[in-house]
Amino acid sequence: MEEAELAGLIALGEGPNLEFESTLRYDLKTGSTNRDLTKVVAKTIAGFLNAQGGTLLIGVADDGTLLGVENDLAILSRQTTDYFENTLRNALGKYLGVHISSVVTVDFATANSVQVAVVSCDRHLSPVYIRDNGKLEFYVRDGNSTKPLDVRAAHEYIAGHFPYEGPGPRPFDGGRCLGSRNSRDATTRSG
User: Fold this and answer.
1) Which domain CATH number covers 129?
2) Tens of pLDDT, residues 129-152
3) Per-position DSSP letters for 36-66, written without gaps between them
């Protein structure tokens, strides 16, 4: 990405398809490593994948100030952008799955001598979940933020945003499982 293109993205500000994160895992408040910050990045990517796709700029403050990835590089055992990308992909693999990490692109761009990570993805064909401590969480973009959905809201969102391509009708109808005593006969339903 050229410097002018990066500057143009930053000038747009955060929105449904663009998010800024100051760092990957360098805690600006404590001045040390905070591995929990990588989950914030994974949530944003999951939100993009579950919506319309998007771009995450790491090394840019919420107000558009260029911070760069230098603080993150300084705390890595190998202080290279290659190792930064490896660290990012390992976090995405941990929280989203390696099969999801592989559909995310990571590039680096420079503006005003400051290097920024440009993390992009398209909308995913199926729902993407965060896995953390044995729990699944579902996130979507809501304007310029990423928000979790509870089970009912996630079910409704998924039903409305991800086409069902299985055999026969969608297996759930209004919270009732087809084939149960409370459901309509599946043979009389239309898809």
Assistant:
1) 3.30.950.30
2) 999 999 999 999 999 999 999 999
3) THHHHHHHHHHHHHHTT-EEEEETB-TT--B
